Amino acid sequence: MTEFEQLLTRVTAQARNSRPWGWPSLPAPVDAATLDQAREALGFPLPPLLAALYRQVGDGGFGPSYGLLPLLDAPPSGEPAAVAQYLANRAYGRKDPEWPWPEGVLPISHWGCGMYACVDCRTPQATVLLYEPNADDADGAWFVDAPTLTDWLHVWLDGTGWYEETDEGTDLAPWTEFRTRTGPGQAS
Hints:
- The chain has 6 helices and 5 strands.
- It is α+β, with helices and mostly antiparallel strands.
- β2 and β3 (about 130) form a beta hairpin.
């Protein structure tokens, strides 16, 4: 069994045994057509591990805090769908250039208070970012939560995330690519 398969097995087991707030049960996984619809709407594919989570584990409803967002449809928890949230954030960023939303950065989990865990779908390792909109400006609202989606999942599975009560106040590094990814010349 590969490391990829082992991680999916661990995530599946944890997903079956825990429910984030607002999720009465683990949703069924999505089908290939749903992944295709998401890719068409977003204009880019999901990183392989993120696609596998939706395709093999469930359409959201597992993971830290409020859990992964569903891909296309709003769940019973009342959380938005990842694709709809991304498109709304991009549209809002075009209306308010002081708070642009980077292309290819997909919100995958809501932390509350407008904060999201997001996957940078333009990086091969699927860097996980923390969007914290309660900052004074957009430049101070982005942090690297984990260098890879794999790392982010391991932290959740091991109970060692910054969001855990046992965490000793880990400071997240600022995401230094924010302005280069949202500045002039970037696609809208």
